[in-house]
Write a structure and sequence with these properties.
The structure is a single chain. By secondary structure, the chain is mainly α. The chain has 21 helices and two strands. The protein folds into two domains: 201 residues, Hypothetical protein af1432, CATH 1.10.3210; 204 residues, Hypothetical protein af1432 (Orthogonal Bundle), CATH 1.10.3210. The two termini are 44 Å apart. The protein has a two-stranded antiparallel sheet with strand order 1-2.
Length: 418
């Protein structure tokens, strides 16, 4: 299997977009914030690694807003603790060495100018203030009105932010200059904003290898799981189980790593699902179940839109497909589902049955076997992979449980900031 290299801009822009697709009033929020921040930074003469840091921090500034409900409250300025998601985001980003430097920017992106002890000569202060203003402006936009009819109201509001000591005068002035150009506003609200960010952003010609993608996938694994205490270690369990089963099946080490990445991303589509559905103790309604079934579709489409991740998109996105065609969202048949995707499906079912859920307690080995075996007998799950799992049950179980314990520790640390 060849070693993949992925465009960093495409990767970050696509994953950022997925976090904001949950509601029409927050869609593309981070994209728009990144565009505003990038334009302010460029007009201030910022380039190189500093521009990269501001751009990346903008794309990920709300990563600590863990649920659909929280994102909506934030966007409407209705949250009781606006800084909480920023602190969580900083903790998540600090787990990745090359993103640790932007964690402070994200942590302080709601800190007002009058509360800083340092001036703009401090890069964290400048970057945080730029994102503070960009985030504020994006949330001022009325998505039901033509954007060019809102310029005067928004620029007046920015002037008020500066007068109130919330935004630095220089940064506000740069924004006012930019706001005089209709092209700025039309780009900001363009349906092709992702392409504009990719082509005009600082990562147009920067590529990363699978080791860096692994680190990014680890962060999204935690983001996905931390939405709910009931899924706080689920993705970790699926990814580790899938990687181990792949090794037992005879996959090479690089393929095992790619399975781990696919497992980390397999539920990224759940970022679009409200917690009221994920945590519902009773049976889902027909409408709720239809929404839940969308998550694997969004997983597949998100990953497949990132050049170089087509196979990983299949392995991650097909985890609810079944060999008899009864799965979802594509109702694929056995000949359309390759071995890694079959491994992922078994890993997902196994890990889910291990875990406590709102509607039941986690199962023991015998209960899991009595649940999974009929699925193999009925040609839903791959019989050989199910047998491989139970032939090595203790090995797989102990490995998965150990990794989930580590994930639970990080979950408690991250959510403990409340």
């Amino acid at each position: 299997m060849i070693q993949r290299r992925i465009n960093l801009g495409n990767l970050l822009i696509t994953l950022s977009e997925t976090m904001d697709l949950s509601n029409s009033f927050v869609s593309h929020h981070q994209h728009r914030t990144a565009y505003i921040a990038m334009e302010i930074a460029k007009h201030d003469g910022i380039d190189g690694s500093m521009l990269e840091d501001i751009f990346t921090a903008s794309l990920l500034h709300d990563i600590g807003a863990l649920t659909v409900e929280e994102k909506i409250l934030l966007h409407n300025n209705e949250t009781e603790n606006e800084e909480l998601h920023a602190i969580r985001g900083a903790i998540l980003l600090s787990q990745i060495p090359w993103l640790k430097k932007i964690s402070k920017i994200v942590k302080f992106h709601h800190k007002e100018w009058k509360d800083w002890e340092f001036g703009l000569e401090n890069f964290v202060v400048k970057a945080s203030q730029i994102i503070y203003l960009a985030d504020s402006v994006e949330r001022m936009i009325d998505r039901t009105r033509f954007i060019l009819h809102q310029i005067e109201d928004i620029t007046e509001a920015v002037c008020n932010l500066q007068k109130e000591g919330k935004v630095n005068e220089r940064i506000a002035s740069i924004f006012i200059d930019i706001s005089k150009k209709e092209g700025f506003w039309l780009n900001l609200t363009s349906s092709r904003l992702a392409s504009i960010l990719l082509n005009n952003g600082p990562f147009y010609n920067i590529y990363v290898d699978m080791d860096d993608i692994m680190l990014i996938s680890n962060m999204y694994r935690d983001l996905i799981d931390f939405k709910s205490p009931f899924t706080a270690t689920h993705t970790t369990g699926v990814a580790e189980c899938a990687s181990m089963l792949a090794g037992l099946f005879g996959f090479a080490e690089i393929e095992m790593k790619n399975m781990l990445i696919a497992g980390n991303f397999h539920d990224i589509g759940k970022l679009l699902i409200p917690n009221s559905i994920l945590e519902k103790p009773g049976k889902l309604t027909e409408h709720e179940y239809a929404l839940m079934k969308c998550h694997s579709y969004y997983t597949y489409k998100t990953l497949d839109s990132i050049g170089g991740l087509h196979e990983i998109a299949q392995w991650a996105g097909f985890h609810h497909e079944r060999l008899d065609g009864s799965g979802y969202p594509f109702h694929l048949k056995s000949e359309e589902i390759d071995t890694p995707a079959r491994i992922m499906a078994v890993s997902d079912v196994f890990t889910a049955l291990l875990e406590d859920r709102p509607y039941r307690k986690g199962m023991d080995k015998n209960q899991i076997y009595m649940t999974i075996k009929p699925m193999a007998d009925n040609n839903q799950l791959d019989r050989n992979i199910v047998e491989l799992l139970f032939d090595n049950y203790d090995l797989v179980y102990n490995h998965v449980k150990g990794k989930q314990a580590d994930a639970r520790h990080l979950y408690d640390k991250t959510l403990g900031v409340a």
